[in-house]
Amino acid sequence: MEKNFEPVIVGFLCNWCSYAGADLAGVSRMQYPPNLRVIRVMCSGRVEPSFILKAFQEGADGVLISGCHIGDCHYVDGNIKTLRRTPLIKTLLSQLGVEEERFKQTWISAAEGEKFAQVVKAMVEEIKRIGPFKKQAEEESDDFDDKAYGLMIEAAVTIEGGNIDG
Amino acid sequence: MADLRLTTEKVGSVLVVGGGIAGIQAALDLADTGFYVYLVESSPAIGGTQAKLDKTFPTNDCSLCILSPKLVECGRHPNIELFTLAQVEGISGEPGNFTVTIRQNPRYVDLDKCVGCGDCAQACPVKIPDPFNNGLSKKKAISVKYEQAVPKVYNIDAERCLYLSKGKPLGKDICRKCESACTSKAINFDDVPKEYNLKVGAVILAPGFEEFDPSKLTNFGYGKYKNVVTSIEFERILSASGPFKGKIVRPADHKEPKKIAWIQCIGSRDTAQCASGYCSSVCCTYAVKEAIIAKEHIGVDLETTIFNMDIRTFGKDFEKYYIRSKEEYGVRYVISRVFALEEDPETKNIKIRYSDLEGNVHYEEFDIVVLSIGMRPCAESKNLAEKFQIDLNKYGFAETSIFDPVKTSREGIYVCGAFHSPLDIPSTVVQASATAAHAASLLSEVRHTLEKQVTYPPERNVLGEPPRIGVFVCHCGINIGGVVDVPAVRDYVSTLPNVVYADDLLYTCSQDAQEKIKEIIKEYNLNRVVVASCTPRTHESLFQQTLKEAGLNPYLFSMANIREQCSWVHMHEPEKATEKAKDLVRAAISAAALKEPLSVLHLDVTKEAVVIGGGVAGMEAALEIAKQGFPVHLIEKTDQLGGLALKINYTLESKDVQNYLQELIQKVENNPLITVYKNSSVINVSGYVGNFLSEVKTSTGVIEIKHGITVIAIGGEEYQPKEYLYGQSNLVLTGVELENILAKSSEYLRKVKTIVMIQCVGSRNSERPYCSRVCCGEAVKNALKIKEINPDINVYVLYRDMRTYGFKEDYYQEARSKGVIFIRYEEGNEPKVRLIDENNLLVTVQDHILQKDINIEAQLLALNTATLPNSNARELAQLYKVPVNDDGFYLEAHMKLRPVDFATEGVFLCGLAHSPKFIDETIAQAKAAAQRATGVLVQDKLTSEGAISYVDPDYCVGCKICVGLCPYKAISFNENKKVAEITDVLCKGCGVCASACPTGACSIKNFKSEQIFAEIAAILA
């Protein structure tokens, strides 16, 4: 394993809870490793499976999705969509050969700065332990794309296709 | 038909005196609700004391960063007219129609011509002590008050200017160097005082306070010993823009200190010498803050000690802050009396002579000693009182009443902030909004009559242009620049594609920075802007406003958060933080390149309010909203109005609560605009600001109410103690029960020889690590009443810290002088209570001074118990999508500056649901919440989000996945065209539909998949 490996983790945080929680960690000067790169979305339910695949494809070593706690969603139940999508994303990733440690989905509220710092710390440590992400078939990265896209569509339809709100 | 009682016509403008945070908040609240405001400030710029502070407690927010957006908003508000260097000369007329005379002193610099470049100060040869840094540094005779000042216009100190003081009076042409240096021709040596007569309907007094001058206390050597500084001076030492650029050094030799001490209650809680008896309320928490920040600056090895009598961290979340300072930062607290300070003439160290609780005298040496000075009424206090003919209290603060806390003795004139009493920032902001409410209800019929409409320059069409991006990287003083190599980030981003301009700014949020951004947009013909600074959650709208003013669509903007999510959390890894900052800015730039101009929608507003909770908070809020002309639905869970106040007979100040409460209930029930629903509760909520729909379960069935805003005022509950034999012996009561007995009959005390009270029952423990704020005052109230009934009854108060803040300190001292005995106990060493027989209890407490157990035989024990959040708080929180904190109280949008707003628009809070507080504080907060709520209700149209979803019919395959997903039912299916369609006004922009659309037909503006893909690619590039 590479020495001094510094993983890059992409985090998709919802604006109202988790992004605010990350801000609170900042305001409280809670120190955590500088390996996370945050992309702000309005709701964790906005995060398409393809965003996660894109992140891995572009070289991320890990992806974090975080939203409001169940019941706290600013958009009523956007995080329920995230909740339902998560196991399918995990399945999808494992089919693509992505270790399960590389993908994490949490709920962090606007008041949980400390939890945010803890989550990042733990994730960085874990990914440092397993090393950098190497795409299963590096030379066939087009294949990764195609396979991923196909699976993604399948997953999207599976997740949303049924009468999930009923 | 004309109202014949109205002798004069009311005027739709308000005078606000004082440009600190109180005046600023009051001015903004009024200007945002249809009134024209004259804001009069005696110094050259607004900002007040908050501008001088480094950080604010208990969140350690950068003080200037949270203030700056408000300064800018005030400075650019079309309905606020600033008069700096000005004071009120006189007032005549009556409530609703006053005429005030304002005198404005010469600035000698033209407000319209000065660009704030500072060339004049460069040229000026005269150095004078800088009052903004309390004289710890020098500035020029021509200067700005501080870098982020609004207005950022220079002014000349006429007494020190060579030409104005020596040349001009004698007709000699000396110096005038600033004049030749100024390329804008802004210097005007012929400037003269100006007088203005203004018509206003109401007046708000917010002149602030004066720092206590400790040089009057000869035993502390302040002014003689250089390493003895005041707490405000220490704030300046901590500040990045302070005299030592944020590096903590000793004023005597500029060496870094190893040991710093704070001495509390300087000029407060002290009836000797020139000091005052009241408690200044804020000094304990600011000392905690200064100690924490000093440790953060210098490191864990710095020794910090706070010498105090009691630690009064009574505000919301202050107690946890205090605990953190001890447990996490190792700040040492010494309960003591400090006699004197002495300087070692060699080392310039300061020796403190103090006695501990046991009476032993100690000496300890420190590198710096900070005197935690109190708040004095402002120097203008007497003058203002005379001019405005209002009463002052015995200390020189404005006289107000408990049940009308922001009204002065004269109708139409209101008071907020530290002229009311020593207050912290959140209480000041609450009071400011409350005064605005008073003024607005007095003048509600002339609302909008003097309001000026805002117009922006026409939006430049940028479609089809290749991106031309300007990037501004913020130092935020040293908040970012102290960790991240800002110039390196700037240089790096200037090499990136589409970037045509990159610069770094000290404070990107300041008004002069906004001007600069606008100029650069024009000069470089920018069509996208990126700001790398703090969190978009607080500052995005400020910069978007700037874009609008520069003729750019506000959505052509993106932000990189390199402070909260970079410099502040990677303080010890500057290189990695710099790399991360580059990544984040690069991503923001690539996102910006794909941003598109978006238009916003205008929505109707249901001009009705729902107030939940029929206690004091809910009723006061309802009444205030109704007074401003809007219908209110007041929903009360029980069968009667009044809430917890029904159980309280009188206040610490001996004011009759029941009398007030009955009057309030009558006013509410008789108000034609208020509908009261008893035995009712909200069971379901849909909609959003401007258009809520709440289902209310009433005794006669479920009804639906359409409303524009919601005020949550559901109050709190009393802790029912499990400890100290409560419930097991009828000799043990709660404080509230005791008060009730004392109020009703003195008969009960006939056989009582000794009464013991125990403080902090259920508060300040591991289960509830907060202070319930009111219990110390309640104990003193009951103790005084007992002594009034029978002075021979022994009263013992077993306490941890007596937190009788503000003027309540007088009552504590009175209780002591009447023989009430106060004994301190420590957490973990709580008193023990045993039943001797059916009429007697034995209370054992370890006395701190004697270091041994004291046994008190008592016939009555009163437990002053915690205030709990309402047990329904969480349920309601879920309905209205608002957060609660760890303790179960509601969490406001911003602890300091948005104390009665929720982050969710259109929902407001007040009273005990927010945190424990006294009745006058609840009343002020209720009025504040009402005013903030009115801010929504006065608008005819609310502007919606521009970043909403849309469906491209060409790609939609009609699968209907999105239709079922939308929580707002904003998506419908067009059976004719077989495609999904979005109702724009209902869409809230969550993007869930976009994430689920299998064909990409459904997308969300500003967060499009291709935009996020670009961001992902850039962040990992």
CATH architecture verdict of chain A: 3-Layer(aba) Sandwich
Total domain modules of chain B: 7
Derived from helix and strand composition plus strand pairing, the structural class of chain A reads alpha/beta
From the structure provided, what is the oligomeric state, counting identical versus distinct chains?
A: heterodimer
- CA-based shape of chain A: globular
Order of strands across the main sheet of chain B: 5-2-1-13-24
Q: How are the strands ordered across the major sheet of chain A?
A: 2-1-3-4
Largest sheet of chain A: 4 strands, parallel
User: Uncertain regions of chain B: pLDDT < 50 for 5+ in a row?
Assistant: 1-5
Q: How many structurally independent domains of chain A?
A: 1
Helix content of chain A: 40-55%
Gyration radius of chain B, in Å: 30 Å
Description:
The complex is a heterodimer of chains A (166) and B (1021). With 166 residues, chain A is of the alpha/beta class. Chain A has one domain (9-159): Rossmann fold. Chain A is built from five helices and four strands. Chain A has helices spanning 18-27, 49-57, 78-95, 113-130, 141-161; strands spanning 9-14, 36-41, 62-67, 103-107. Chain A has a four-stranded parallel β-sheet with strand order 2-1-3-4, with helices on both faces. The model of chain A is unreliable at 161-166 (pLDDT under 50). Chain B has 1021 residues and is α/β, with parallel strands linked by helices. Chain B folds into seven domains: 8-105 and 193-208 and 378-457, FAD/NAD(P)-binding domain (3-Layer(bba) Sandwich); 107-190, Alpha-Beta Plaits; 211-376, FAD/NAD(P)-binding domain (3-Layer(bba) Sandwich), CATH 3.50.50; 469-593, Rossmann fold (3-Layer(aba) Sandwich), CATH 3.40.50; 604-713 and 904-930, 3-Layer(bba) Sandwich (FAD/NAD(P)-binding domain), CATH 3.50.50.60; 720-865, FAD/NAD(P)-binding domain; 949-1004, Alpha-Beta Plaits, CATH 3.30.70. Chain B has 25 helices and 52 strands. A five-stranded parallel β-sheet of chain B has the order 5-2-1-13-24. Chain B has a five-stranded parallel β-sheet with strand order 15-22-16-17-18. The radius of gyration of chain B is 30 Å and the shape is globular. Chain B starts with 12 loop residues before the first strand and ends with a helix. Chains A and B meet through helix 1, strand 2, helix 2 and helix 5 of A and helix 14, helix 15, helix 23, helix 24 and helix 25 of B.
